[in-house]
Design goal:
With 518 residues, the protein is of the alpha/beta class. Helices cover 30% and strands 15% of the residues. The protein contains 14 helices and 15 strands. A twelve-stranded mixed beta sheet has the order 1-4-5-7-9-8-10-11-12-13-14-15, with helices on both faces. The protein has a three-stranded mixed beta sheet with strand order 2-3-6, with no helix packed on it. Strand 2 and strand 3 form a beta hairpin. Helix 5 crosses helix 7 and helix 10 crosses helix 14. The longest helix is centred in the last third of the chain and has 21 residues.
Length: 518
């Protein structure tokens, strides 16, 4: 079967409010890359792009936001990556659609991971939107925006023009959502049916937008994947950022913020990296995440959910291992006897092992006991609280736990990002997740997400009945080779495991520091 590709003066040409775009048609999809949705001066709010005449070529991915430091490629069998050209002029987005018509397809908007400091719309190969657009008949959009000190450094003490610099990255996302609202109908999309979805930092961005009044009405549903963290683990963002700014300027040998606007990014990043450890040690705002103010209501676990968003349906999930899934184990769990597993747990977890072992056996009877060492509490524990509080507002909050092991090393627990290929229907791009059982589960997960996108409810005939959670009953869809729903099944375990198991995750992270950027 030949692959249909077309690009000419009549194919994949779309008019937007700023000018005409040229994309291309490939494999039954119209694809546009690097569309500018806004422009911005450093530390300032985004502004509309300057309209152009003629036709703008949008067949190549746009710049991605510069990083504070260059990541060393690692873990490519688990999370295949791409590295792209970096530049501060990074306010662009990508679109995949089946038709440039008036069919009003649901719109799904991907917010990438990497915390609020790193990553990009194309960083992971599994972020590709083609399969989702083709198989789900939706319009897929992925966004680049400002990150790290460009997106979240608070300079509000230095003048009204910097009043919201601590949320510049979020203002970029809102500018992108406004562009979608105003233009997506020309790409066959429905501006009144927009679903946000994101993983890790991208999941956190969904929550940040829920807590930002300026985003109200620009999206209608959300999927948060491994995006709920204990607020105590987030970079310090409350209080004034004045000390951080002064420390950076001192390191650079400059005396004004206006000079900071024009310092080469690499120099500014080096200065920030040098002074940040001391800022962290002193508990000062170091510009690593959204800044609570009149624009942003702050983390809901600390400040409560905005009631204006109470009717927005959400799916909230995490994976079994998260960061521990990246760390190779020093043992072959398939060769350990039960007694050997218990002895290793007692050595690793100390006196807590006696309490945690029976709780783990009850919550995860299908797993080997030694997997307790790799159980995540960093995301799962706060997610339980998040869902409990969110469910007090509505009956539209669903929970999942991704529990599908890989055949890598004869059984690797799910790692941070391991659910992404299933949601995108992109398991074919990840060699360690492309077995027949993976493909079967992929169909079930993808079908549930597409139904959620179209109806606001993830229930389909491919999965067991999946009730929305209540404040007292968390109905968790456990996604493995035999998906099933459990009620409050791990609450005691997560509460008891808490800091002990989190320490194991941070140990894994210290062995694989780049994994946090996934």
């Amino acid at each position: 079967m030949s692959r249909a590709f077309r690009m000419n003066h009549e194919t994949a040409v779309v008019s937007t409010d700023a000018g005409t775009l040229q994309g291309y048609f490939d494999n039954d999809l119209y694809i546009f890359k690097g569309i500018p949705y806004a422009k911005a001066k450093r530390f300032h709010d985004p502004q509309p792009v300057t309209p152009w005449t003629g036709v703008r070529n949008c067949t190549s991915y746009g710049y991605v936001c510069p990083l504070l430091s260059m990541s060393e490629p690692a873990g490519e069998l688990l999370v295949p990556h791409r590295y792209w050209v970096m530049n501060e002029n990074c306010l662009n987005l990508n679109v995949w659609t089946q038709g440039l018509d008036d069919h009003k397809r649901p719109v799904v908007v991907w917010l990438h991971g990497g915390g609020y400091e790193a990553g990009s719309a194309i960083e992971q190969v599994a972020y590709e939107g083609e399969n989702m657009a083709r198989l789900g008949n939706v319009v897929v959009v992925s966004i680049n925006h400002r990150l790290n000190i460009l997106g979240y450094l608070d300079l509000s003490d230095f003048g009204d023009q910097y009043a919201n610099s601590g949320n510049a990255g979020t203002t970029d996302m809102i500018a992108a959502l406004k562009w979608i609202h105003d233009n997506i109908a020309s790409f066959g999309g429905d501006p009144d049916n927009v679903t946000l979805f994101g993983q890790s930092g991208g999941g956190g961005k969904v929550t940040a937008l829920l807590q930002t009044p300026a985003a109200d009405g620009l999206f209608h549903k959300g999927l948060i994947m491994s995006g709920v963290l204990d607020s105590n683990l987030l970079p310090e963002c409350e209080g004034s950022g004045k000390e951080a700014v002064l420390a950076i300027m001192k390191e650079l040998g400059i005396s004004s913020v206006s000079e900071l606007e024009t310092v080469p990014y690499d120099r500014m990043a080096q200065a920030y990296n040098k002074v940040r450890p001391d800022l962290k040690k002193r508990g000062l705002n170091n510009g690593g995440s959204p800044h609570p103010n009149e624009f942003y209501a702050g983390e809901p676990l600390k400040n409560g959910f905005r009631k204006e968003t109470s009717e927005i349906p959400l799916i909230v999930g995490s994976v079994f291992g998260e960061f521990t899934g990246f760390a190779p184990t020093a043992y072959d769990k398939n060769k350990l006897s039960l007694d050997e597993q218990k002895a290793l747990l007692e050595k690793t977890l100390g006196p807590a092992a006696g309490q945690l072992i029976p709780l783990f056996e009850k919550a995860y009877p299908e797993r080997k006991l030694i997997d307790l060492i790799q159980l995540d509490t960093i995301f799962r524990k706060p997610s339980i609280e998040y869902v409990r509080k969110r469910a007090k507002l509505n009956d539209k909050t669903w929970t999942y736990l991704f529990n599908m092991d890989s055949d890598l090393n004869d059984g690797t627990v799910p790692w941070h990002c391991s659910d992404i290929p299933y949601v995108f229907h992109n398991c074919e791009y990840v060699p360690t997740q492309d077995s027949d059982p993976d493909r079967i589960l992929e169909e079930k997960i993808f079908d549930a997400f597409m139904n959620f996108v179209k109806t606001g409810n993830p229930n389909t005939d491919k999965l067991p009945e999946w009730p929305a959670s209540t404040p007292d009953q968390e109905y968790t869809m456990v996604l493995d080779q035999d998906p099933h729903v459990k009620v409050n099944f791990d609450h005691q375990l997560e509460e008891a495991g808490g800091d002990i198991l989190a320490a194991a995750a941070f140990s894994a992270l210290s062995q694989n520091p780049d994994s946090v950027q996934h």
